[in-house]
Specification:
By secondary structure, the protein is an alpha+beta fold. It contains six helices and eight strands. A five-stranded mixed beta sheet has the order 2-4-5-7-6, with helices on one face. A three-stranded antiparallel beta sheet has the order 1-3-8.
Length: 192
């Protein structure tokens, strides 16, 4: 029942992302706070099975908060699901070559080159049995791809069998945002 509920939720999200009647509602997003929340939730799934490290720079993004959260959550939970216990996962966020970028790197099994072009297709599975047992819906990377397209970003995937994978969300520099005034005021009050 839970798996069916996740599947329905993912299908609804994907449908909304593809529907031109839903314009992108943008705001300055505190990505460091969002990522800390995503990583805290990921620890509940992880339950100490992997070492998760993060390097998060104070970079904000002009984006739709819920869509970005969904994309980032999908990448982090995929790394947990598809990396054998005892593995390492590294999450980084910052500016690389002038562009905001999220990278989720793992030292899991890796993905054979022939599968890479199809990974963002709906329901595409590299290993059907294993992904079904991990609880995935087969829609996570399709959601990531569509979220990034709506934000003029791109998904880069680098993987080597036996060495792991890196999934990167790269946004154009025009998506950089300044911290919102209310958040900056709250931060300065806390510091006082």
């Amino acid at each position: 029942a839970e798996r069916m509920q996740r599947l329905v939720e993912d299908l609804l999200m994907l449908s909304r992302l593809e529907d031109s009647r839903y314009p992108l509602k943008e705001e300055p997003v505190d990505v460091p706070a969002l990522l800390h929340s995503v990583l805290t939730e990921a620890e509940g799934i992880n339950r100490g099975a992997h070492r998760i490290e993060s390097r998060i720079e104070p970079v904000w993004l002009l984006a739709n908060r819920e869509e970005i959260r969904s994309a980032f959550t999908n990448l982090v939970t995929n790394a947990i699901r598809y990396t054998p216990a005892g593995g390492d996962i590294a999450v980084s966020w910052g500016i690389e070559e002038g562009e905001p970028a999220l990278r989720v790197r793992d030292n899991g099994d890796g993905i054979a080159p022939e599968h890479l072009p199809r990974l963002t297709e709906r329901f595409y599975r590299v290993d059907r049995g294993r992904s079904r047992s991990s609880g995935g819906t087969g829609l996570g990377l399709a959601i990531v791809k569509h979220v990034l397209q709506r934000h003029q970003g791109r998904l880069d995937i680098a993987s080597e069998v036996g060495r792991g994978s890196t999934f990167s969300c790269i946004f154009p520099a025009t998506r950089l945002a300044r911290p919102s005034r209310t958040t900056a005021q709250v931060s300065s009050i806390r510091a006082a």
